[in-house]
Structure formats: C-alpha cells, structure tokens
Specification:
The structure holds two protein chains of two kinds. Chain A is built from twelve helices and eight strands. By secondary structure, chain A is α/β, with parallel strands linked by helices. Chain A folds into two domains: 164 residues, no CATH class; 123 residues, no CATH class. Chain A has a five-stranded mixed beta sheet with strand order 2-1-3-4-8. A three-stranded antiparallel beta sheet of chain A has the order 5-6-7. In chain A, helix 10 packs across helix 12. The longest helix of chain A has 16 residues. In chain B, 45% of the residues are buried. Chain B folds into two domains: 203 residues, no CATH class; 124 residues, no CATH class. Chain B contains twelve helices and twelve strands. By secondary structure, chain B is an alpha+beta fold. In chain B, helix 7 crosses helix 10. In chain B, the strands form two sheets. Chain B has an eight-stranded mixed beta sheet, sandwiched between helices. In chain B, strands 5-4-12-11 form a four-stranded antiparallel beta sheet, with no helix packed on it. The mean pLDDT of chain B is 95. The chains are: A alpha/beta, B alpha+beta.
C-alpha cells in the first residue's frame, strides 16, 4: 500500500521548487473505477493526489505532449522541469525517451512508486457491472480490497490485474529522484507463453485473426496518443505530402497503420500497455508489441528502457549481432 | 400512432419478414465488441446489450464514403456511386435515433448532402428501448427518456413476456403492414406496463448533466482559464469525436492509383491538429485547449444557436472511452459553475 501522505509531501516539495513547472500525478476520477491524471502547479494542489490500483495511466506521456506555442516578442520560453509520478513500467518509458534524447534527464523530476500491480479497467468493470458508486480499491498482499457503496470484497489480484502485471519484472521504478516507500523486488519473469502459443498457429489462422482485429480499427489514434514513446513531431500517418497512409478506413490502410505503429516501437516499447488499454475497439495491440519484444530479446538479449546511459537498440552495432534474417 | 404487442417468440419472424424486402443492420456481438452489422438471419442479432461501441450514425454517415470514382486521361470517366438501397436499422437506441435527427440539421443545412439524405430517406429505424441504462447514460438531462419513441419509426419495448410496439410513422406502418398474425393490438395493461418499464429505466439513470443556461454561459467564458484546466490532460486522440453519435465533421480526399481514382469522404476530428491547419501553415486552433473547447462549444453553443438543439444525446460513449477520463457530464456541469 502506498503511503499517500508521503506521496503528497513529495509532490508538495517538488512543486515548491523554483525550477519546477508542475507535477503530474493521479486524482480520483469522475465515475466508477476511474482515476485520472491530475496536475499540481502549487503546493495546495498536491492534496488531491492519490495512488491506488486504479492509477493505470502512464503519465510519462505528458512531458512529451508539452506544446510549444510560438513566443511573443521578448517572451522567454518556460524551460522549467516537469515532475512526474511513475510506476515501475512507466519509469522505463522515461528511461527509453532519455536514451533516445527525446527528453533531457534534468528536465524531469521523477517521483517513483514501487507498484504491486494495478487493476485492468475492463476486468474490474466486468466484475462490478452497472451503476457502481463510492468506489475504493486498496491493495493487500495478493488481494485487492474493493469497496463499492459500503460493501467490501477481497478479490485475488490474479483475477483483476492486466497481463502486463502478471509478468512484471520491474515493479520498482528503474529511475527516480524520490521513491515513495520501499523498493519491491520482482519474482516474476516474462516468459512470452501467450506469444508462443500464438506463434504455433498456421499463417492463415494468424492472418485471419489479425484481419478480424484490424477491420474493427476506427483509426482514432488513441493507441498512438496515449503511448509515451509515440512522440514523433509529425506522425507518418498525419503526413500529407507525401501521404504514406490513406485516410480511408479499410482493412488495407488499417493494417498498414497497425503494423507501422508496432514496428516503429520495435526495441522501444517498454510494455506499459497503454495502447491496448485505451483502444476503444479492444484490439489486442500488446500481442504485436510483445511478439517484437520477444524477437529482439532472443536475438540481441536487449530490453528497452532499463539504462538511460545505454544506446538505443537500433542505434548500435555489434560485430557479433545475428544476421540470419538478412537475405 | 398504433400501439401493439409482439410476443417474444415472434420477434425473429418479424425480422425475417423485414429481411424479405430490406437490408437489415442490427447489433452483432463479436468478442467483446457490439457493432451494428448487416444480418442475413435473425439469429445473428444480439439483443442483450447496453449500446453499440460505434454509434449507428456510421450507417448513415459512413466513416469512409466514396463520393464518386474517376479514371485518368483526357477521356476521363466519372462514375457515381449508388446509395439508393432500402435499409432498416434494427435495435437502435432512442438516444442514437435522436442523434440522427440532430445530424439532419447539418446535412440539410446550407448545402443539402445527397449521400446522407438519400440514405436517411431509404432507412427505417426500428428502435429498442433501454431497460437498463448504463453507468454513463444521461439522456434524461436533455428531457429525453430511455424509451422515447420520438425519433424512430417503430419502437419496441421489452415489457416482460412480450414487446410493446409503437408504430410511429408511415415507414413504420410499411414494415408492419400485413403482419396482423404477429402484431396484436395493445391492451391498456400493456401500455401501463410500458410506462412502468420506462419509469424504472429513467430512475436507473444515476448521472445528470446541468445544461440550464449553458448556451448563454458559454458565450461568456470562451477565454476562461477553465478550458486550459479541462484540456490539459487530453492526449489528443479522436476517440471522443469518432464515437460520438452527433459528431459529423469530415475531410475529403482524392485517393488514386495510376489507373483509377476515387474521391472519398472520411470522418475527421477537431481533436486532430491538422483539422484546422491552413495551407499557409497557420493554425487557428494550435493547442489542445482550443480543440477540446471547440468540441464542447460545437455541441453546447454553436449547434443550439444554429438549430435550437444541443448536439449531445447523453449516450456516454465519449465518457466511457476517453483514455484520461475527460467527462463531458462533469465538464459541462462545471462550465455552468465557472464565474464569468
């Protein structure tokens, strides 16, 4: 259980610094099992901050979403730091972005939270359907303690956590300035079991599966916009001249989009699962991401977002890199 | 209006009858998604649902619509695309049916849109009342009800052992004509039951949006820092607008290969920076604040000023599917409380 007082104190301290613009964390959402991103500009704002298993968002997307409107004459750019509350998986995104020089380490203040697993919003909503009110979700060893309208239930975590938490190797942020509570060591291991099962299907079956998924895509680009690592200044699908991907929404263009998204994250995706969480059409995007992650791990023994000093996978060359895939 | 009843066992017979003369689109479940799709037999229909993930506006205003096709060269041929087919949307919720009536204003406005209007003319709406509104439903905030028959041609309401059937329009009469073996006149008790079901559904709606005086209020708070606060957490995707049953903005593109081409119309979203990007490079809505504000203003200020109706039906989709919990009930209610 995260000590919320300690979190709020850390936020207060951070936002009080002269060189910090704001801190982004979580607050209670407007309905049901929702938490929502929350911004502290002054110490009092920290009172709204919470941390619970409902804090499913990866907030490291916010420094990347910073808008730089044109400055008026004589106006100086605001170069102050941004404070971010991160879980283990979220922190790997920051590390990866720093590695890629997308963000300077000294432009962020990282408040780390050792995470014992969040809930999968779809699973908890299925478990508690309808008009839920006065919701509270707490964490107790291997159970979630869920209170809905005064009634409390304990539910084993395994039933409600997203797949990414089941195999999480980094519950404690890999990079932080302040840690709330004690470091947690993971005993879990990513074994890519689901991917191995899927790999055994025939090519036709796999193709049929993905066609069914991509047909649903409405190209709202929620997957891209919620992803902290999709931070291209202009996304390839938005380019008009040349236009790489057509605006028509059909299987062909949707396939192009979904595959190019996955490939652009090769060696970069840190597995926070935001793309899949936000997809309004329930496309299992993590299956694509995990497949690529597995290939890269097998070939290069490389995991993205672990060490900010390391070079990104696609920016380094080793003479003994495998090359069996080169024709 | 004719008031009748249809036994539950006869529902599939009714659908079979409709299928004889019309293409039928109805809610179909696949994995965890519910979508309006064309059905060829009654068993494909899934009647046990809150609402479809993508609103049925997509059947009237296609996400991708080929306006016409063309060939290259000096002897270029232009080929129009036929939109003239009889269609029935079966199982549309009253809120979504209202959204199509709201879209009429835009597509009938200064320029008549033949694609939408043809389809509208040829489509009959067979509504299905909500007996169990979902968590983020708020149609009652607009004086509508989950069992409103105002915007459909026929409305079916589950009253326990049978459906209460209200036939509203000529299109509805056409669909029920000659089916007296299926439809029996409703008794007073059936009408009473429908009212009870409707009342129960209204009482189940737990969230309300305060829209009193919102049009005038928004006139006064355009530059208020409130919008920055609301929009700061927006990640800028198009889920809210694409899944909104009343959003109707589009982009037009020519998509061609060496030998053939087509002019297509696709859904556009004001959440996309490109939406207002001008050829000069200037963008009048450069920041997410401008764009989020526009979404609210279009629905709660511009539309009511132009057409005397708020362009929101309270279906709750944008709330359910926003990645960061930007909640239109909360935003509009709070906008009403902002000090101008």
């Amino acid at each position: 259980m995260v000590d919320e007082k300690q979190l709020r104190d850390a936020v207060k301290k951070t936002v009080s610094r002269e060189d910090v613009k704001y801190v982004v964390g979580y607050e209670k959402g407007t309905y049901g099992f929702q938490a929502t991103p929350c911004f502290a500009y002054k110490p009092e704002d920290a009172e709204r901050f919470i941390f619970s298993p409902l804090c499913v968002h990866n907030l490291t997307v916010f420094p990347m979403l910073e808008e730089k409107p044109p400055l008026r004459k004589g106006e100086e750019p605001d170069t102050r730091k941004i404070g971010v509350v991160v879980k283990g998986c979220d922190s790997r995104a920051i590390v990866q972005i720093i590695q890629e020089k997308g963000l300077d380490r000294d432009k962020v203040v990282i408040i780390g939270i050792p995470c014992t697993g969040v809930v999968d919003p779809k699973k908890i909503e299925a478990k508690f359907p309808g008009h839920v009110k006065n919701v509270e979700v707490k964490d107790e060893d291997d159970k979630f303690v869920i209170t809905v309208d005064g009634k409390t239930q304990k539910i084993p975590k395994d039933e409600l956590i997203p797949d990414k938490c089941k195999t999480c190797e980094y519950p404690t942020p890999v990079l932080y300035d302040t840690l709330i509570g004690k470091e947690i060591k993971s005993t879990k291991k990513e074994d890519y079991k689901d991917i191995e099962i899927f790999e055994k299907k025939s090519l036709e079956d796999k193709w049929e599966y993905w066609e069914k998924q991509f047909e649903k895509c409405i190209r709202c680009y929620a997957c891209r916009n919620a992803c902290p690592l999709c931070y291209c200044k202009e996304c390839m699908v938005d380019q008009l001249n040349p236009q790489w991907v057509r605006r028509s929404v059909n299987l062909s263009e949707n396939t192009a989009w979904n595959l190019l998204r996955a490939f652009h994250l090769a060696g970069r995706c840190i597995g926070c699962g935001q793309c899949e969480r936000v997809c309004p059409m329930d496309i299992p995007l993590m299956k694509l991401n995990k497949k690529i992650e597995k290939e890269i791990k097998e070939m290069y023994e490389y995991k993205p977002g672990i060490n900010a000093e390391e070079k990104p996978l696609l920016a380094m060359f080793k003479p003994d890199d495998p090359e069996d895939f080169i024709l | 209006m004719d008031k009748m009843v249809l036994s539950k066992g006869d529902l599939s017979k009714f659908i079979t009858e409709i299928l004889k003369k019309n293409k039928v689109f109805a809610p179909v479940k696949s994995d965890d998604t519910i979508l309006f799709k064309q059905i060829t037999k009654p068993s494909e229909l899934n009647i046990d649902f809150y609402n479809s993930d993508v609103p049925p506006k997509a059947l009237m205003f296609h996400q991708t619509e080929t306006l016409f096709k063309f060939s290259p060269g000096t002897k270029a041929k232009i080929e129009s695309v036929d939109t003239d087919e009889k269609k029935v949307i079966f199982g549309i919720r009253p809120c979504d049916a209202k959204s199509i009536a709201i879209l009429d204003h835009a597509f009938k406005g200064d320029y008549e849109d033949p694609y939408f209007l043809n389809r509208r003319k040829n489509t009959a709406l067979v509504g299905l009342s909500c007996t169990e509104p979902a968590l983020n439903c708020f149609c009652t905030s607009f004086d509508d009800t989950p069992a409103s028959s105002k915007y459909v041609d026929i409305l079916l309401t589950d009253i326990g052992d049978k459906y209460y059937v209200e036939v509203i329009s000529d299109k509805g009469k056409q669909l029920t004509k000659g089916l007296s073996t299926l439809f029996k006149p409703a008794k007073e008790n059936d009408t009473k039951k429908k009212k009870e079901v409707e009342k129960k559904a209204i009482n189940m709606i737990s969230r309300q949006q305060k829209t009193n005086g919102i049009v005038e209020k928004l006139d006064k708070i355009f530059e208020n820092p409130f919008w920055k606060e609301v929009a700061f957490k927006c990640v800028g995707c198009g889920a809210c607008t694409y899944l909104c049953p009343t959003c109707h903005c589009f982009d037009i593109q020519d998509e061609s290969t060496l030998t053939k081409g087509a002019r297509v119309r696709v859904w556009d979203t004001c959440m996309n920076p490109e939406y207002t990007l001008q050829a000069s490079g200037y963008n009048p809505r450069p920041a997410r604040t401008n764009r989020v504000r526009n979404r609210i203003y279009h629905k709660y200020n511009y539309y009511p000023k132009n057409f005397d109706v708020i362009a929101c039906v309270g279906c709750g989709r944008c709330i359910d599917l926003c990645p960061v919990n930007i909640d239109i009930i909360d935003v509009v209610t709070r906008a009403g409380e902002v000090k101008a």
